[in-house]
Amino acid sequence: MKSARLLAASLMLALSVPAWAEPPADIGDSVEALRQKIGAVGVSIAIVEDGRTTLARGWGVRKLGESAPVDAETIFQTGSTGKAMTAAALAVLVDQGKIAWDDPVIKHMPWFRMYDPWVTREITIRDLLVHRSGLGLGQGDLMFVPRTYLTRKQTVERVAFLKPKTSFRSAYAYDNILYAVAGQLIEEVTGQRWEDFIREHVLRAGGMKNATSDSEDRFRIPNRSWPHARLSGALRGLGPQQALDERDELGRNGAPAGGLALSADDMAAWLKIQLAHGALPGGGRLFSEEQAKQMWTPVTPMPITELPDSLKPAQPMQQAYALGWQVQDYRGHRIIQHSGGVFGSITRVVMIPDKNVGFAIMMNSEDSGMILGLTYELLDHYLDQPDYGWTTKWQDWFEARLAGGVEFLKQAKASPAKVGPSLKPAGYAGRYRDPWYGDVVIADGAKGLTIDFTSTPRMAGRLKHWQYDSFVTEFDDPAIEPAYVTFALDADGKVTGVTMKPVSMIADFSWDYQDLDLKPAEDKK
């Protein structure tokens, strides 16, 4: 029989070793069954427990209509989950003593400007990452959504013309554009493009051997997933899956906000580093313990979205944004997580620090109900919770949301006022300019009025009269979100300005048409 002292020591040792849970025993069959039921194209999942990869595999295919399977090395576009990697790249520079989180941005980019001169002086590197600058939700995203002619530096220069929606540091509003500023700052400090610095100092240094930060690198990798979406219904998200043109991607000027591609193996390596607070599995560190703490420390409180009763357990009591991560509670545990999405691909990265567990789910389609269902099924598994039927509940919620969006469109189409337009088509034609976006050209031709967003390749189409002096876009590219275009006239019937807003009430926030303030251009360029 053990002595009391030895028994106590044994119990303490047992308690200090994290419980080994293992992934759900039926995960292979259940994910495949769900994928087929929903009609998703491909799925990849990585799970890390106690510093070990316990799952890294794929289901489905890389591209619709082809047989090449998704596996642990298939790279997926991971969207805004890459914000945490841009933060990690900055953490490397903090450890090197080249920057500090609370340095004013203009210390390293003297030419950088925000709309307000006081904010220009005060905004720090930390502020770039935590969505409290005063900009509105997704403000400025049309500078890289859906594509762009702009360089990153040109984009950052145009931030000066983004008029804030709230006062500085007073409210949370998710943005992408200031991560583009962070990427430009990395280049200003190091002399390396964001793409090159993050590849060398984060991806390769962290053991992410398949991951890419540059489009051309991604296109050279045979084992890559294609983006897919449902575009043929009344709203995006309805209709059968179709493969998108993988080269028709978001502008690379915004890549520091979410332009990376990773495999399940890469995600496992990233999760190990995060859960080890910057330590590398083979020894050494990617970033220091202090920077790991900084990146997980909540900074900006986030409003909590009210969820229906069926999803209530997923509603946190508190949540906040840290440096590239969202921190919240779930069933009494702290969760570090972030979602990501680009056209045709979605991702979710989640960690439960007190369980030393993390997982990532990547999909090459836009089936958000499936990815959220899998997320909460895995959370409940590792938190030893009973089955709640999350996949069905989330899928039902998204289907109801789409149905509501369709009904809204039906009602809108049925009720326009049969008034207007006030002018002949030629009266609306002209070049209109917004200080941050650039020029939008409206022309009167054989097919009637047309619209062309000149900073964005192939963002053009017809304008169809709606009511009064409002028109609706019919873009040549069906993947572009339609918008209402409204002309303001003076007493003499001359156009004094143009405003826009998305047609759909559930359009992605990155279609920030409402932030445009177009005025007749004074020159002929």
UniProtKB/TrEMBL annotation:
Domain Beta-lactamase-related, first and last residues per copy: 31-368
Domain Peptidase S12 Pab87-related C-terminal: 417-519
Keyword check for Signal: yes
Signal peptide: 1-21
Pfam family, one: Beta-lactamase
Coiled coil: none
InterPro entries: AmpC-like, Beta-lactam-related, Beta-lactam/transpept-like, Peptidase_S12_Pab87-rel_C
Keywords carried by this UniProt record: Signal
Protein name listed in UniProt: CubicO group peptidase, beta-lactamase class C family
Organism: Sphingopyxis terrae subsp. ummariensis
